[in-house]
Amino acid sequence: MPTRVRVTVPATTANLGPGFDCLGLALGLYNTVELIAMPAGEPVQVEASGEGEMVLPLDDTNMVLQAARHLYKHVVAQECSFKLIANNAIPLSSGMGSSASATVAGLVAANALLSGPLDRENLLRLATELEGHPDNAAPALYGGLTVATQSGTDIHCRSHALPDSKVVIALPQIDISTHAARSALPAQVAMQDAVYNLGRVPFVIEALIAGDYETLRWAMTDRLHQPYRRELVTGFDTVTAAAKEAGAVAVVLSGAGPSMAAFTAKRHNEVAHAMQAAFEGHGIPARTFVLPIDRRGAHISMVSG
Ligand code: HSE
What we know:
Layout: E1 4-14, E2 23-38, E3 45-50, H1 63-76, E4 81-88, H2 98-113, H3 120-131, H4 137-142, E5 145-151, E6 154-160, E7 166-172, H5 178-183, H6 191-210, H7 213-219, H8 226-229, H9 236-245, E8 250-253, E9 260-263, H10 268-281, E10 286-292, E11 299-304
The structure holds L-homoserine.
């Protein structure tokens, strides 16, 4: 049985406009964790560097460890202690899937320490139990574009490889808790808004697979979550307009925000610069990322012991 594994997990952007809680895309920005099995009863050890290094918990409440323990309980019904060394490039609370990345990293690493008893479908089911929804965990595990949905306790996921392309992400310095972003949503939506979104989802999937940006221009739009969340992201409308002026065909909230994702076939750096300048015009510092699409998903880069 291995005693030490290293796992690399990509960032993700969920929803992609109309695909609320079901579409997701893996992005080429990575967290890497090393998980070392230790005898039950030993105190956990956590070292974290990179994004969030000053705020990430260094005890049992760390999400990577919680996921690893969840898997151990599920598979071998036993406790285990771990040493965790995490190096994170995915910003926390950003809408770029850092929480799903931590969960997936813990599950994939613990599964590898047990010599891989669970397949990806079952890892996604456990990730969804911990995350509450599969739309970030699915691309973090599978890579590429994913469609994931729940039926009872089953999670159904399809993943698609996309042509080489890049996504622009603008991350403003705005705090939005997941709770606030979910609380902003209504309990019920109008029939015509549901129809608006569900008619667009297949077009978004096809257009991303085909690299058809002109279809994204009208299809990557949403009436189920963005109208309620845009108030939480100061500058949402001006940033959208600035990105489009610079060449973006579609601009959406990335997951629950606060980051925004822009899609364009070219002029990625110009779009990134325009989005940053528009946030700064509202007095909000912003970071931007021009990220390739990740095709691999979570993968084990080292096993030893
Ligand atoms: N689909 C989720 C949401 C993604 O929009 O709330 C963020 O967790």
